[in-house]
Amino acid sequence: MAYLKIVHGDITQFHGDAIVNAANTGLLGGGGVDGAIHRAAGPELDIACRKLGGCPTGEAKTTPGFNLPVKYIIHTPGPIWRDGSFEEAKLLRSSYVNSLKQAVAHDCHTVAFPSISTGVYRYPLPAATQIAIDAIRSFDAPLDVTIVCWDEPTWEAFKQAVGEA
């Protein structure tokens, strides 16, 4: 079972084996955490992502960490929230689970996640936090998982969801 910790901070400063990028399906950088990771990792990340040929929503692909203090960046496009009737919950859970599978496949022991899909993709924060926590806690591998919350509302939502508030 994975061990879970919640912190408030900048995922690009995480020191460990891997970070997860809340990517778009083209894997070509964008706004929010995706843009921050691409900027911090350097131009080599763009080249590596272009070679991957995109990634479907809910799946995950891995690149080296380049200029980040991690070995790997695991890219996963989460779902865009429409109204909850387009398998958004299933796809969001898949983003977390498939990212964890990539971490195990790359022999990672420590991995950090942002809050996937809760920014510009507008997934409701309370529902997204519960899906993330359930997916991580039920994953059967000895991983140390950190959720890195960029802003105060996200940090508070995750702390409340794990019973730390």
Automatic annotation (TrEMBL):
Superkingdom of origin organism: Bacteria
Pfam families reported in the protein's UniProt record: Macro (PF01661)
Residue ranges occupied by any Macro domain in the UniProt entry: 1-165
CDD domains: Macro_OAADPr_deacetylase (cd02908)
InterPro entries the record matches: Macro_dom, Macro_dom-like
PROSITE patterns cross-referenced by the UniProt entry: MACRO
Record NCBIfam families: PRK00431.1-6 (NF001664)
Protein name as it appears in the record: Macro domain protein
Organism name: Secundilactobacillus similis DSM 23365 = JCM 2765
